[in-house]
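Supplementary Note 3. Input sequence used for the single-chain structure prediction.
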Amino acid sequence: MYNLFHTASVSRVARTLIAASIATFATSASAAEELTVYTYDSFISEWGPGPALEKSFEAACQCDLKFVALEDGVSILNRLRIEGKNAKADVVLGLDTGLIEETRKEGLVQPHSVAFDALTPVLKWSDKDFVPFDYGYFSFIYDSQKIKQPAQSLQELVNSSASVIYQDPRTSTPGQGMMMWMKSAYGDQAENAWKQLAQHTVTVTKGWWEAYSMFLEGDADYVLSYSTSPAYHQVAEDKSQYKAALFSEGHVMQVEVAAIAANSEKKALANRFLEFLISQEAQEVIPVTNWMLPVRKGVKLPSAFDTLIQPKPIELTPEYIAANRKTWIKEWRSAVAQ
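The predicted structure, written as discrete structure tokens, is reproduced below.
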């Protein structure tokens, strides 16, 4: 009789302890600090860096990293503007050098505390609000099995009859890069160049992925992308026919950045995430998933990166871009609408 009672008592105590443990675990899980990151859709796609970075960072911080996908860097900026003080973002990831000053002047970000000692000197980075996580050069990609003599300058491409797809500068950072490229190459004659390009432009898409997908389906001879895009095809698909055309005028350099959203009250965790983005661990992931160049010194890359073109950089300051961006967009709209 005693044994039965004792066994039953132990069983009840065990069940109570187990229930209490489950409740404690559930409370702890629900109390895990959440960090919301606005970024672009390809970053968090199954083949992008997002899933691997999320897993690694959550394991280290014991927090819940929540990505919110938007179409492109310009879309991220537009979302922040629309939401204002109601923005749920703690971190914005995917803006670039062309959007830095505009974002800063509108008070949409706050200073970080990240040190830049480990960054490549190529960037010469010292910004107090923005942290770079990768960089590259805008380029036109073509299929070398179809095009044997690619254009050797932007002017040659504009003057040709080759079909082209690029992205809308109002919604896309590559599209904005294209606008900067045209202004750099043509200056006051940029509107006429846009008109000429429009005669053999297949379409202008909202974002990068839509444009690149159409190109891969054979809808155009050239697509605006990055000098690093061919590395993806070599590493992931074992295909070497996709190349970046090297232009004599040079190529606009893009640095992608992240920042702490102005309204975030989770500055410590946000800073920790920004530090993680430029860590050795994250920087080894980003180039072979986002297919851009690492911002950290000493990151080993697949041999495919050795085959890429080495563009002459066209560097426009964020201040200069911010001062002229609206005028350039009006010029582009006027030209392509005719």
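Residues 2-30 form the longest helix (29 residues). Residues 1-30 have pLDDT under 50 and may be disordered.
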